[in-house]
Design goal:
There is one protein chain. By secondary structure, the protein is an alpha/beta fold. It has a single domain, classed as TIM Barrel (Alpha-Beta Barrel), CATH 3.20.20. Helix content is about 45%, strand content about 10%. It is built from twelve helices and seven strands. Strands 1-2-3-4-5-6-7 form a seven-stranded parallel β-sheet. Helix 11 crosses helix 12.
């Protein structure tokens, strides 16, 4: 879920509640607060927990609410994940530590410590080598699945989308959603669902009902939307589209910047080609 900011650059909890409500009413059965799309690197812990409180209060009885509570500091990740549990999160999304690039022994220690610190909170591993450099391969993910409360992986490496013993598999990229489902996946933590949530939910439902051809047809029709969401770094395009739709301001915190007029025109054109008029 994108994070709304007001004109003074503060987290806009009213707009965030409204966006959460919109997403749940348009196909999403769960939300990630303060993830990559939520500009987590520029949110402090107080802001993350305030967002979590607002979203849990707004839709927590109807949807799964997950907090992006990982970082590249194990102690910080332990503390924020514990706070997520205390504030009513249904799960924590724990990213592979970035920049310091731990080896597998360090990764085992990191995820083990976060899990031990919140033994009753389900944890979702987040494999996104495009942003953090380190990739967690399928065999290593299966090893991490032995940690009792590690239940799933958000797989943002499309080349390694495959079943992982002991873990629910969740697509981390829009383009990998259908591929994930075809490989035994449970769903996805996605970006385009902000704009075409009902169509992506229909794709999911058709696949689950055995209508693979129908799911493929929907996926094919959504390719311009996937392209629009990736014309520059996420979440710049989706926030531009959300503002066009009147759902959320496109304001961002540096070092992220708003889409240029040329990028906005391209986004609007791609969405229109997929039948999305903003």
């Amino acid at each position: 879920m994108a994070t709304a900011f007001d004109a003074d650059g503060r987290v806009d909890l009213v707009a965030s509640r409204s966006l959460a409500r919109h997403l749940v009413e348009h196909g999403s059965n769960g939300l990630v607060v303060a993830g990559t799309t939520g500009e987590s690197p520029t949110l402090d812990d107080e802001e993350k927990l305030a967002l979590l409180d607002a979203v849990v209060d707004e839709v927590g009885r109807e949807a799964t609410v997950i907090l992006g509570s990982g970082s590249n500091d194990t102690r910080h990740s332990v503390e924020l994940t514990r706070a997520a549990a205390d504030h009513g999160a249904d799960a924590g999304l724990i990213v592979t530590p970035y920049y310091n690039r731990p080896n597998e022994a360090g990764l085992r220690g990191h995820f083990g410590a976060v899990a031990e610190g919140s033994p009753d909170l389900p944890l979702i591993l987040y494999n996104i080598p495009g942003r953090v450099v380190t990739n967690m391969g399928p065999e290593f993910l299966a090893e991490l699945a032995q940690i009792p409360n590690v239940i799933a992986v958000k797989q943002a490496n499309d080349s390694e989308i495959q079943e992982i013993p002991g873990l629910d598999l969740l697509a981390g990229n829009d383009t990998g959603f259908l591929k994930c489902l075809k490989n035994g996946g449970s769903g996805g933590i996605l970006v385009a669902s902000h704009i075409v949530g009902e169509r992506m939910r229909e794709l999911y439902d058709r696949f689950r009902e055995g209508d693979v051809a129908g799911a493929e047809l929907i996926d094919s029709g959504l390719k311009p939307v996937y392209e629009a969401m990736a014309i520059t770094v996420n979440p710049i395009p989706v926030k531009a589209a959300l503002e066009m739709a009147g759902l959320c301001s496109a304001r961002m915190r540096l070092p992220m910047v708003e889409a240029t007029e040329e990028e906005k025109s391209r986004i609007r054109s791609l969405l229109a080609s997929a039948g999305v008029e903003l």
